[in-house]
Amino acid sequence: MPTYVASVxxxxxxxxxxxxxAASPKEARSTLRERGLFIQEIKPAQEFNLGKxxxxxxxxxxxxxxxxxxxxxxxxxxxxxxxxxAIVRSLGVLAEQSSNRKLKKALLEISSDVQQxxxxxxxxxxxxxxxxxxxxxxxxxxxxGGVLDEVMNRLSKLLEDVARLQNQIKAALSYPVVVGFLAxxxxxxxxxxxxxxxxxxxxxxxxELPALTQFLxxxxxxxxxxxxxxxxxxxxxxxxxxxxYYKTDAGREVIDxxxxxxxxxxxxxxxxxxxxxxxxxxxxxRSGVPILTALEIVRDTAGNQVIANAVDASRRDIQQGGMIxxxxxxxxxxxxxAIQMISIGEExxxxxxxxxxxxxxxxxxxxxxxxxLTSIIEPIMIVVLGGMVGTILLAMYLPMFKVFExxx
Length: 408
Hints:
The protein is mainly alpha-helical. The chain has helices at 25-34, 55-62, 67-82, 87-97, 101-115, 120-125, 133-145, 148-204, 211-223, 229-247, 249-259, 265-286, 291-300, 305-319, 324-330, 336-348, 351-407, and strands at 3-9, 15-21, 38-44. It has a three-stranded antiparallel β-sheet with strand order 2-1-3, with helices on one face.
């Protein structure tokens, strides 16, 4: 029901504004009169937004549609279509149930477009923030082949696998991030507040402070003075420069190539990229999307510019009549086992099934790598945290030993 804002006066003549939800302005007036208010003016709430800003629209624009949101929508949409519910009705029902503002708005607009005769894929293409090229291409293939419900099931499975992979990586990084934050917080708290107190006590006693205590006291002075702005400015400036450099094609390629060679993390990045590439490529080809079109789509979903360039180069070779496995092997980016399995899939005519098996294998590899990485990082973080606290405690206790020596 719409919301109205009314300028009213109460029984004492005091002017104020009242917000009321009603089916029509007439109903809103009747409700306000029953409350003993004298109505001067009533308008829809939208006209009373501050300036020209519509906060609901701003909130919707800031909302993002997650992989999980799309997976849930795809699964529910497939069930409704398989049950014989019309597409327009299905979109309307799912829009009403959606808790995501942006997705809800997009589904209502898509439903309106489909009702006017626009294809579902074309209607979805108008909302790239909700449905990317991969999603739209698979829906288009399902429309052409008359197997939209099956394609939506594949899409939901694909998105669920992607979400599961992302959650595994986030879970692996959450522990070191939390421990690292606590370590920094404890170090700053003890350095800024605790060390100066002990240092003043020892100085009053006339004790010469050890080099370690003097160094931490200097660090404490820096943290409590304007000089702390220097590393902050350098860090912010470096972050901005890094982002600007990464936005360039050359910078993105250099950084992504280096990320593949980082110890511990490089292997994980490569395996997750291969799993995402093969899962997406297999889903597209199984849904009937032409191989060249599928490669063009997965190039942008690889998540790494080096792998994206390799996929693009292989697409050009295939366009000239080459094989996928040979084209990918030339770039020397994909693991040899993945290339061999893709080659077997091409020879047997079961490329989509082999791609899915490759994706399953490397997703398991990513899961195992994440567990191994977590088991390595946990003791390292504990040692770092203990070392930081131990160093500060040592800096406080060393002067005490000198005091005891002096008294002795």
